[in-house]
User: Which sequence fits this backbone?
């Protein structure tokens, strides 16, 4: 059968597939440790639940304006003022079905087939596929200095006449690295100079450690007129542990918001009103949950680093934020998919192969589970990879026997 060229070019979401694999293995009773996850385990804020429940109890759950209800737009405007020091109007704001949809409709609004979209390596798995969905060409740029910090000169060199946009995600999924203030200032300036859209994917911007503060790209923007090509993406999924609500947003210029709204109106209409009400509760309500999540993640990072540092051959870059650690396992083979499958089959530990993020030889390990899971997961990885380890390992009531070198 003939399916579309674009449809056939899109790869399965590696991370969503892993969630399904974990669920299937757990259903079979296997002692799975999920270090592949991308969502906090804490509960959604009470204010979010009360708001959503109050709406549900009326029994009147209706369509909303395609770009979101006024109360949510107002909460996003307030959020933008608090965390970015930027005043925006309702006409600059669109609420979507997750940051993912906000990104997707933004790309659909700005890209023509053949256009190029630049983003640093390692990158979030969806950026290349989203560009392809628009018929555009993803241009991943590897930092020339071998670090996880993008180098402005590398990005500048990758710009061609077809370049239309740059996507920056800091702190970064998968590396956890937060890009420097200088880099943010420089990339804003570069994109303004070259007349490119700059999409700041700030979904993890408050989940940062070591006393760091979120960076506002707006403070470096010279052009905040209606022609501004600065796009800020954010949402409630990560910081408020509300992944299942599917609510994110974009702050953009008024014309772009209108085009994105038109696209969203025909794709899905406005996001679920229940989720919008929940997001209003989260954004306007008690913020202590965000801080306690941040503290938990900072502590989990410490444990993850201690555990990984005891694993001979593995190199780790200390994450500044998020709930990921992107560790260099090249000493155990360049093929990260093979390594991740080996760890899954032999010791039931789920990790995400680095190749999905543009860097083979690495594994993304998640710190959003419990400390017990982190310690147990790394213990099993260590046992699997250490040829001098004892030949047997007891995992719950399973006896694992080493039958490999
Ligand atoms: C970098 C990045 N951007 C966007 C998203 C999408 O978030 P949402 O759940 O709001 O769609 C994710 C989710 O994993 C992410 O890691």
Assistant:
């Amino acid at each position: 059968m003939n399916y579309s060229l674009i449809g056939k070019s899109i790869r399965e979401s590696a991370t969503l597939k892993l969630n399904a694999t974990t669920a299937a293995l757990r259903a079979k009773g296997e002692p799975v440790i999920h270090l592949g996850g991308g969502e906090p385990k804490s509960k959604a804020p009470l204010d979010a639940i009360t708001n959503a429940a109050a709406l549900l109890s009326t029994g009147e759950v209706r369509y909303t304006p395609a770009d979101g209800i006024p109360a949510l737009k107002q909460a996003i405007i307030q959020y933008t003022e608090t965390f970015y020091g930027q005043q925006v109007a309702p006409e600059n704001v669109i609420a979507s079905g997750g940051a993912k949809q906000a990104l997707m409709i933004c790309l659909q609004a700005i890209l023509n087939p053949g256009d190029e979209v630049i983003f640093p390596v390692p990158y979030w798995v969806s950026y290349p596929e989203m560009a392809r969905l628009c018929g555009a060409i993803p241009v991943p740029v590897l930092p020339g200095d071998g670090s996880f910090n993008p180098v402005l000169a590398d990005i500048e060199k990758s710009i061609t006449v077809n370049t239309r946009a740059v996507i920056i995600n800091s702190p970064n999924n998968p590396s956890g690295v937060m890009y420097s203030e200088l880099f943010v200032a420089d990339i804003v300036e570069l994109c303004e100079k070259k007349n490119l859209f700059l999409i700041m994917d700030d979904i993890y911007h408050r989940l940062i450690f070591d006393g760091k503060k979120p960076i506002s790209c707006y403070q470096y923007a010279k052009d905040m007129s209606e022609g501004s090509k600065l796009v800020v993406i954010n949402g409630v999924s990560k910081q408020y542990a509300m992944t299942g609500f599917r609510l994110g947003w974009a702050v953009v210029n008024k014309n772009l918001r209108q085009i994105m709204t038109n696209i969203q109106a025909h794709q899905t209409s406005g996001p679920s009103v229940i989720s919008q009400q929940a997001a209003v509760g989260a954004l306007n309500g008690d913020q202590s949950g965000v801080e306690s999540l941040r503290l938990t993640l900072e502590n989990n990072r410490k444990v993850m680093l201690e555990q990984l540092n005891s694993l001979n051959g593995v190199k780790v870059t200390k994450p500044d934020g998020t709930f990921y650690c992107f560790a260099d396992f090249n000493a155990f083979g360049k093929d990260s998919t093979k390594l991740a499958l080996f760890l899954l089959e032999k010791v039931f530990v789920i990790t995400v192969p680095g190749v999905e993020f543009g860097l083979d030889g690495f594994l993304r390990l998640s710190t959003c589970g419990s400390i017990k899971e982190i310690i147990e997961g790394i213990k099993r990885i260590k046992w699997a990879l250490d040829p001098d380890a004892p030949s047997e390992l007891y995992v719950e009531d399973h006896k694992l026997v080493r039958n490999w070198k």
